[in-house]
Design goal:
The chain is of the alpha+beta class. The chain has two domains: 4-79, no CATH class; 84-199, Roll (Mannose-Binding Protein A, Chain A). 36% of the residues lie in helices and 20% in strands. The strands form two sheets. A four-stranded antiparallel beta sheet has the order 1-2-8-3. The protein has a four-stranded antiparallel beta sheet with strand order 5-4-6-7. Strand 1 and strand 2 form a beta hairpin. The longest helix is centred in the first third of the chain and has 28 residues, at 52-79. The chain is elongated and about 65 Å long. Bound molecules: methyl alpha-D-mannopyranoside (MMA) and calcium ion (CA).
């Protein structure tokens, strides 16, 4: 006689697989919005009758199971407070400090980019680490050629700002932006030693 716990597990797994098979969608609760279901491949299902739909089903199963495994890993990382997430982005730190340009490089080295909040939710997701490590962090925002006008690093307009009172104040002398421990922003020289926070 299997234990109730085992029975529960088997039932859970069976239910997950059933859901996976039935709809080709992640059965696990997707903890992160924006990890959208992969787009349909550009194959006409009826092209080779009987063959491709089968391949397609297997592919969907594999994708479904991979999504499930990824979502479990994300669950662990959340639980361990190693990542925060908002609006489809994941934020993380290695707990180390660096100047702005080193931060850019470090984030790029691991396949991410320097954290750049697009809305209050993402600002909070970055702020979590700033508070946890009690250290300011540089953001992926820089002064444009027009003094006192700030933009994302790719030159696009900011979608939201959270300047501290009377900031930005550098008038061309402070080209980078740091996040204070209350989440507000200050324009600042780029050579400070700040917490590395990346986005993925
Ligand atoms: C510092 C520097 C500036 C900031 C002011 C605020 C004196 O300069 O951090 O970027 O605007 O403090 O008082
Ligand atoms: Ca300033």
């Amino acid at each position: 006689m299997p234990s109730p716990q085992l029975f529960h597990k088997v039932l859970g797994a069976a239910f997950f697989l059933l859901l996976c098979r039935a709809q080709g969608k992640p059965a696990g609760t997707p903890p992160l919005p924006g990890f959208a279901h992969l787009p349909e491949v550009g194959i006409d299902e009826g092209f080779i009758p009987g063959l491709l739909p089968q391949v397609d089903n297997e592919m969907e199963d594999i994708i479904c199971q991979l999504e499930h495994r990824i979502s479990r890993l994300e669950g662990v990382l959340h639980l361990e407070k190693k990542i925060t997430a908002s609006g489809g982005k994941i934020f993380a730190t290695n707990g180390k400090k660096a100047d702005f340009h080193t931060t850019l490089r470090k984030c790029k080295e691991v396949g991410g980019s320097i954290a750049a909040p697009r809305n209050p939710g993402q600002n909070d997701a970055i702020l979590y680490f700033v508070k946890d490590f009690n250290s300011y962090a540089y953001l992926g925002i820089k002064e444009s050629l027009i003094s006192s006008k700030f933009q994302f690093l790719d030159g696009t307009q900011l979608s939201y700002t959270n300047w501290h009172l009377n900031e930005p104040s550098g008038k061309g002398e402070e080209e980078c932006v740091e996040m204070y421990t209350d989440g507000t922003w200050n324009d600042k020289k780029c050579n400070q030693n700040h917490l590395i926070v990346c986005q993925f």
